[in-house]
Structures are given as C-alpha cells and as structure tokens.
Amino acid sequence: MSEQGRACVVFDDHLTDYDFGPSHPMAPVRVKLTMQLARELGVLDQLDIVGARPCSEDDLALVHTPQYIERVLKLSKHPTHADLTIGLGGDDNPVFAGMHEASSLIAGASVEAARLVWTGERSRAINVSGGLHHAMPGRASGFCIYNDIAMAIRWLLDHGAQKIAYIDVDAHHGDGVQAMFYHDPRVLTVSLHESPQTLFPGTGYSTEVGAKGAEGSAVNVPLPPGTSDAGWLRAFHAVVPPLIREFAPDIIVSQHGCDSHMDDPLTNLMLSVDGQRASYLAVRDLAEELTGGKWIATGGGGYAVVDVVPRAWAHLLSIVAGRPLDPETPTPSQWRADVERLRGQPAPSRMTDGRHARFRPWEEGYDPASWLDRSIQATRTEAFPLNGLDPTL
C-alpha cells in the first residue's frame, strides 16, 4: 500500500504525560497498555506512527479564551495553586506540573491527524490520547483541559472544509464540542450518551438542537442507564446514519470513549467490547460511504484501564488501519504478563466479551412503553425535521 493510502496513528510517549496523579481514574497507563497491546497484536504494523507538535498559544486561542490559556500556563508552572473558577484544582481536574505542555500536545496531535487526512497525506488518522470533549472555551471540565477535538474541527474549517460531521459515542455527553459549534451550521455534532438525568455533565437532552441560524446542527440521543449492546446499536442506527447521509459531510471526526462498557466504574451503560467494536465499524462504514473514507478518530473516556480500554481501542486502531481484528483473537501472553506485573491483576485472555452485537432495527417498530424507544423517538422528532427528514419513516 502506498504511503498516501495508509492510515496513521498520531502518537509519541509524551502524549502520556497528561497525568492527574496516581489515584485519578484518567490514568495514562490505559493509553500505554493500548499501544502495547496493538503493537503485540501486529496492528501497528498496518499503521504509520506519526509524531505531533504542541499547539501554540495562538492556535489554542482559536477555541479557548486568552485569559483561560494564560491561567493554565501559570498554574502549570505553579501546580500547588488552583483556580476553581475555571475548573482547575479539585478532584476532577487537579493541577499538575507541565499541564499546559501535556494538554497542548494532545491538542496538537488531533490537529495533526486532521491535517494529514484533509490534505490527503493519509487516508484515516487516529489520536487515541485525544477525545477531551468536555473542555469549554474558558473552563476545564470532566478531566479535560484543552479541547483537542474542537481544535481539529476548527483547523478543518479554517482550511476549507464546508461540512464536518462529529460523532461522539462516549458515555458522557460531548458538551464542550457541542458548545463550541452550537452556532455553526457547518458542523453537525451528534452525541449518544447516558441520560443527563443520571450522569455528568447533566446536558445532552434531545431538545438541544443548535442555536438560531444553526437549528438541527446539534443532535443528542440520551440513553437510559442500563442500555446494552442491542439497545445502543438500535439507537445509533435509528438516528445517526440517516442524519449523516442527509448532511453529506466532507469529513467525519469521531470520539470513541469506551466508558459505555458494563465494567466501567464511572458510568451506568452496559455495552460489551463487542458492541463497542460494532460502533467503530458503523462509523467507518459511514466515512467510506459518504466522505471517500476521510475519517479522524480519537479516544476519550474509559476507566476500566485493564479489562476494557486496551482491547476496545486496539479494535479501533485495527479498524482505522483497515484490518479489523477478529474478536476471537487471544491477547498476547507477554501483554498479559506485563499487565499483571504493572497492575497486579489478571488481564483478559481474548479480544471479545463473548457477546453478539445484534439489534432490532428501528424500522421493525416503535415501543412507546420502552424508555429507550421514547428517547430515540424524541431525538428523531426534534432533529429530523430540522434536517429535512421525516421522523415517522
């Protein structure tokens, strides 16, 4: 395969310098274990590994306020201080030395992924360290300091993209990305997440559809706690493909937080690795159908750092590479031994949870007694007419 035809992962070891401390759930070891697993499975042989440069302060100011960037810089140099008015300090976003440098490098990695795909240098690109979708223009939130996804989307808009579809499958609402493009009809943000009634950040209702002049550009599918593979995939396919097809994007950007898994300690969804893998394939299929394959993927949440994250994202890396792993693939013995040594717990032996990612298509009927179906129907009712679609079909 020619270099231009190959996909890539934007990565170097400094991307794991984003570190809130040993007791924080956002542990950088989850990225290290992912890359090690992907390497030992041969996935990285199918991907070019590309480095990245940090975003400059001027670049960051395209989506963040100068005052916020200045405070991050100061706190990064004086990590014993905090500023809770901008979300820095406390349990969610503790301040750490080098915070600005680590965060701006993750943002730079997602911008580099966008550049590589948009210019045609690579067919697809992924930044597994990215996906920090909660960061707001002037505030850190939900383990996210700089919003790398918004940076990538802004770069694409500034370099000629006319229509960008953003798909967020994290268990938490992609509120920061939505907020930054809520007034921009060129960016369609679609988020499937656990109901804001039961999970941070408390936003992402179906009634959030975009600001005046951009009505229909935000789409939210709030899912009941306990939703498993069949329900999640039913919701995805009832909402996402028809909207993305109607929007006809130039490129797809996606966030793949795997905290929707049944073993995740912070959320209440019940997906398996097999269901998550099916979601990655569905996003890939939309990119192949609609954008000539132009697809930028990121990581995101995911706090079962041994049992879930490495397997889920190794699958994602393999799908980006164009060589999806067989779910029945055994995990390498050396990786399992390293996990036990590093974490003191046994690692999964296979790349599957033994589930089958089947679902009942929406076209087979709506059940008004089902919370899930009522949620799907509410989203279709709110968003479809604004995008020229009939919610009853």
UniProtKB/TrEMBL annotation:
Keyword Transferase in annotation: no
Record-level Gene Ontology MF annotations: histone deacetylase activity
Domain Histone deacetylase: 24-318
Pathway noted in the entry: Ketone degradation; acetoin degradation
Protein's UniProt keywords contain Lyase: no
InterPro entries in the cross-refs: AcuC (IPR003085), HDACs (IPR000286), His_deacetylse_dom (IPR023801), His_deacetylse_dom_sf (IPR037138), Ureohydrolase_dom_sf (IPR023696)
Keywords noted in UniProt: Acetoin catabolism
GO process annotations (BP): acetoin catabolic process; epigenetic regulation of gene expression
PANTHER family named among the record's database cross-references: HISTONE DEACETYLASE HDAC1, HISTONE DEACETYLASE HDAC1-RELATED
Similarity-based family: Belongs to the histone deacetylase family.
Name the record gives this protein: Acetoin utilization protein AcuC
Species of provenance: Aeromicrobium camelliae
